[in-house]
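Friendly challenge for the regulars: who can give me the structure tokens for this chain first? No prize, just bragging rights.
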Amino acid sequence: MQNPKDNIYAYTGINLPISSANINKTGYMLAERIKFTGTTVIGVISTANANLNGTGTIVDIITGTGSGTLIKKITIKAQGTTTQGMIRIYFKAAGTYYLKQEVLVPAFTQDSKHRTFIAEINVPFYLKAGYLLSASTEKGETFIVTIEGQNMAWPA
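First reply, four minutes later:
Bragging rights claimed.
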């Protein structure tokens, strides 16, 4: 809903005095605009790591910036034939990795009639500024992890 500056009956249809709030010089409690800047980051994972506790080889892919980053989609694409295994997505805060999600990788034999493994995670979530999203692979196979998101910033 748009709130023009001359509308004293905004939102509820009654005149609400807000003496302590003078947001944008209107006297109304307006939602501040957020600036979104698109970002796409690519990481390559290929070193085997069977650990679930955040130890071993884990590749940091994206860091939350500004007022945080809204992660929209994660795409995992194998770069060849795969054996059954797992891709693990980690959330890193204050130097500690936390297992966020696991993606099952089935055995695929790449040839002229069969494509390589691909998976998409389309569950949006918020990544606080300074926190990281990371990944590892259980098997020593190469995967490209593409993360699409939007960096958020409130105007000064």
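The chain is about 0% helix and 45% strand. The beta strands are 35-45, 59-63, 69-78, 85-93, 96-105, 118-121, 125-127, 132-137, 143-153. Your move, everyone else.
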